[in-house]
Amino acid sequence: MSLATFLHRVKRTSWSERLILAEAVGALAVAALAIRLFPFKTVAAAAGSVGQEKESEAQGPDVEKIRWAINAAAPYLPWRIACFQEGLALHSMLRRRGVASFLHYGVGQSPERGLTAHVWVTIDSRILIGEEGAGSHACLATFPATTDRP
């Protein structure tokens, strides 16, 4: 899909969807800058501390809209977006809303690509983003840190 087609589709969305899409662009920009400017340890600490979980989590449609916005915006930004930026942006948007999400960082190895890293985000063990590589990567760390999550 071209940028023109994407912008045409955005025009047909509701104002609430446009707002969440704009927030996703901002979150992706902040994630990309953080990853570029700060050491992994600093970014990971921030990912583990962002937001406070509430008693009741956001309902499915809210989570799905946020995931949609990240997936919709990422391909059209003028800078490189990979799973780390997407995961960090999604995780921060969910945590700010009090949703108990977890950012997972893993590594894997393949003969074609050698050692690779991958990031995915879960809620209640359900993978929201990064599912395509989660199964082939061993989880090294989860943010926020927890002993009962993979």
Task: Explain what you see.
The chain is an alpha+beta fold and 150 residues long. The protein is built from 6 helices and 4 strands, in the order αααααβββαβ. The chain has helices at residues 3-11, 15-37, 40-49, 60-73, 83-96, 131-134, and strands at 101-110, 114-123, 126-129, 138-143. It has a 4-stranded antiparallel beta sheet with strand order 3-2-1-4. It is globular.
Annotation keywords:
single chain; 150 residues; alpha+beta; 4-stranded antiparallel β-sheet; 6 helices; 4 strands; 49% helix; globular
Tell me the major beta sheet. Answer: 4 strands, antiparallel
Succession of helices and strands: HHHHHEEEHE
Q: Helix amount, in percent?
A: 40-55%
Going across the biggest sheet, name each strand in turn. Answer: 3-2-1-4
> What is the structural class?
alpha+beta
C-alpha geometry: globular
Poorly predicted regions: none
Q: What integer value in Å does the Rg equal?
A: 15 Å
State which percent range the strand residues make up.
15-25%
What does the average pLDDT come to? 85
How widely separated are the two ends? Answer: 35 Å
Count of helix runs: 6
